Amino acid sequence: AQTVTQSQPEMSVQEAETVTLSCTYDTSESDYYLFWYKQPPSRQMILVIRQEAYKQQNATENRFSVNFQKAAKSFSLKISDSQLGDAAMYFCASIRARDDKIIFGKGTRLHILP
Amino acid sequence: DGGITQSPKYLFRKEGQNVTLSCEQNLNHDAMYWYRQDPGQGLRLIYYSQIVNDFQKGDIAEGYSVSREKKESFPLTVTSAQKNPTAFYLCASSIAGVQFAGELFFGEGSRLTVL
């Protein structure tokens, strides 16, 4: 079975600093995808970044980047130059390529300190 | 604008009553999903549908039912059999195809409170 674990229920970071959110996953599949989703206080969840397991290069989207360590089954999210608008719940997720069921971690609530 | 609309945003129900949550999308997506979100639990999949007139149970389907009579609509009924229905419910949709796997578009959610 697929599992996704986020070990940090809450984190805080000073505005303009860099923060890293941790995620580990477990799968026996060779072909899968990993994601980070953001749920701001307004509650509408949006996709932040996506990583294909077969790609060695870490995905990057502006200030958001991932550190994908396939052997260690680790998929952390780095937010550079943190902004007040980054305050949200962040969910790590995975899906098998042959599947339509995406599995979410329990989330990390990120606070941005002004 | 294209998107997913969930209604109502807030709903109160007495114990023993069934209630239906609406989810409509105009993104022309094939797949639709219902998730339940509880504090500290993350998102748990209730039901999903990849095509009209077909749907599959997720991890916590007991006490819930769905229908998919139209591509754009995927209503969720919370029945009286659901033991602990108070929660935040999220509907999502996605384009079919491996290259879009896991890219979900979410609605704003419906908060159900059982009195």
Explain what the structure shows.
The complex is a heterodimer of chains A (114) and B (115). With 114 residues, chain A is mainly β. Chain A is built from no helices and 12 strands. In chain A, the strands form 3 sheets. In chain A, strands 2, 5, 6, 10, 11 and 12 form a 6-stranded mixed β-sheet that branches. A 4-stranded antiparallel β-sheet of chain A has the order 3-9-8-7, with no helix packed on it. In chain A, strands 1-4 form a two-stranded antiparallel ribbon. The radius of gyration of chain A is 14 Å and the shape is globular. With 115 residues, chain B is mainly beta. Helices cover 0% and strands 50% of the residues of chain B. In chain B, strands 2, 4, 5, 6, 9, 10 and 11 form a 7-stranded mixed β-sheet that branches. A 4-stranded antiparallel β-sheet of chain B has the order 1-3-8-7, with no helix packed on it. In chain B, a hairpin with a 3-residue loop joins strand 4 and strand 5. Chain B starts with a strand and ends with a strand. The mean pLDDT of chain B is 92. Chains A and B meet through strand 5, strand 6 and strand 10 of A and strand 5 and strand 9 of B.
Calculate Rg of chain B over CA atoms: 13 Å
Oligomer: heterodimer
> What ranges of chain B have pLDDT less than 50 throughout 5 or more consecutive residues?
none
Number of helices of chain A: 0
Mean of all residue-level pLDDT scores of chain B? 92
Helix content of chain B: under 10%
User: Helical percent range of chain A?
Assistant: under 10%
**What profile does the largest beta sheet of chain B have?**
7 strands, mixed
Number of E-state strands of chain B: 11
Query: Unreliable runs of chain A, pLDDT <50, ≥5 residues?
Result: none
Order of helices and strands of chain B: EEEEEEEEEEE
Number of helices of chain B: 0
SS-based class of chain A: mainly beta
Structural class of chain B: mainly beta
Q: Per DSSP, what share of the residues of chain A sits in E-state strands of 2 or more residues?
A: over 45%
Number of strands of chain A: 12
